[in-house]
Amino acid sequence: MSASGKIAQVGQPVVTRFAPSPTGYLHIGGARTALFNWLFARHHGGKYLLRIEDTDKVRSTKEAIDAILDGLDWLGIDGDGEPYFQSQFEQRHAEVAHQLLDMGAAYRCYMTQDELAAAREKAQAERKPFKISSPWRDRTDWPEGDPYVIRIKAPQDGETVIDDLVQGRVTVANAEIDDFILLRSDGTPTYMLAVVVDDFDMGVTHVIRGDDHLNNAFRQLAIIKAMGWPVPTYAHVPLIHGFDGAKLSKRHGALGVDAYRDELGILPEALFNYLLRLGWGHGDHEIISRDQAIEWFDVDHVGKSPSRFDLKKLENLNGHYLREADDTRLATLASRKLGLSYEELQLLVRAMPELKARAHNLNELADGAEFLFAQRPLAMDEKAAALLNDEGRAHLALAHAALAATPQWEHDPLDAAVREVAERNSLKLGKLAQPLRAALTGKTTSPGIFDVLVLLGKDESLGRIADQMPKPN
């Protein structure tokens, strides 16, 4: 990143960025922010950059960095080029702070923690919002050797206006903006300084982020204007709430992106589509491909109200993408949960058209496939065991005889054989199919019973049925 970089002017390429703090997993709100930045850049033929804001050395961890990069890669929204790490540019950040100091746009503040605490208590007692009023703002008789911070000289009169692409025109009185710290007493930069310097040096033209940063924008503008840098275009996106309108939490499904993949069995294209529709829309379209998203995305159609995260809707959307997905790919993903051999994987691929029609996630897909690889005698769940009473077992014996005599082990001949048994014995088809399903799968839900018979093969199917038939005296 060049210290002399400049924000792109009108007619120059769009540059966006996603700048997560690596103090935890990549949460769902962060993933959506990354997606919106990625799409905006792609739509305009620009660049999307990734910057890891790792200046909090105590809380930033390699595990969190790896989880963020892995989650973005899985969603297919990794940055253009290698990620930047904010901690690499601390010298540059400090350089700008001292430049502001030399320009008279910042000052050394020697206020002690006790003085700050007393000022805060006074504001509380007077029931006023606390705002720094440093006696050092206009002084230059700085004591040598004493610790100090560098504070911005925030404007005190007038107002600051932001024409936000999402929020519209937002105005704040400059009297509300405090003289925040740029450089700590140990010489390290604050977030407020570092983010502004990095955005300028990286040539960021559009800052798209959560609306919890809107107040920060007014403070950051104090630095930008003091340095005479071009002002980026802001778009502050409303946060995501739970399905009940409350702040998003784990009970709503506020998990890390890796948990949606590893624990909930969500496909990346489903989460991509769902995040896209959280706060943005294109007519009545619910299913939107990656290419369509790039073509259609704009900030104009981002809503001003918080969107609501609904895990059920995500799973329903995921079910659509499961049905559309390649069978070999799905079988490979599901096999990781089942621990299959190569031969078993091939069986799972053949079974996938039937299995994926019933599943909403990879976990359900794997659960639905377990019967294919179960060892005899099968364990029965409670509902399946209830079907195998004396009457059910007697019906199994009738079906076994007919199936054993069927010359072609294919769907239609097997269907015809079972239906013929039902008609001959004045039984509804379900009276035969239900105990058959229980005997073949150990469950009361499965793909179509004749598909199950074909997938298991003749020997295995007849063996499983025989295991549950009445034993001769």
From TrEMBL:
Compartments (UniProt record): Cytoplasm
GO molecular function: glutamate-tRNA ligase activity
EC number: 6.1.1.17
Coiled-coil residue windows: none
Motif 'HIGH' region boundaries: 20-30
Positions of the Aminoacyl-tRNA synthetase class I anticodon-binding domain: 338-467
Ligase found in the keyword field: yes
Domain (Glutamyl/glutaminyl-tRNA synthetase class Ib catalytic) ranges: 14-315
Keywords: Aminoacyl-tRNA synthetase, ATP-binding, Cytoplasm, Ligase, Nucleotide-binding, Protein biosynthesis
Sequence motif 'KMSKS' region, location on chain: 247-251
Reactions mediated catalytically: tRNA(Glu) + L-glutamate + ATP = L-glutamyl-tRNA(Glu) + AMP + diphosphate
Main localization, broad class: cytoplasm
Annotated residues for binding of ATP: K250
Top-rank taxon: Bacteria
Keyword NAD: no
Function as written in the Swiss-Prot or TrEMBL entry: Catalyzes the attachment of glutamate to tRNA(Glu) in a two-step reaction: glutamate is first activated by ATP to form Glu-AMP and then transferred to the acceptor end of tRNA(Glu).
Similarity comment: family membership: Belongs to the class-I aminoacyl-tRNA synthetase family. Glutamate--tRNA ligase type 1 subfamily.
HAMAP family recorded: Glu_tRNA_synth_type1
Subunit structure: Monomer.
PANTHER family: GLUTAMATE--TRNA LIGASE (PTHR43311), GLUTAMATE--TRNA LIGASE, MITOCHONDRIAL-RELATED (PTHR43311:SF2)
Protein name according to UniProt: Glutamate--tRNA ligase
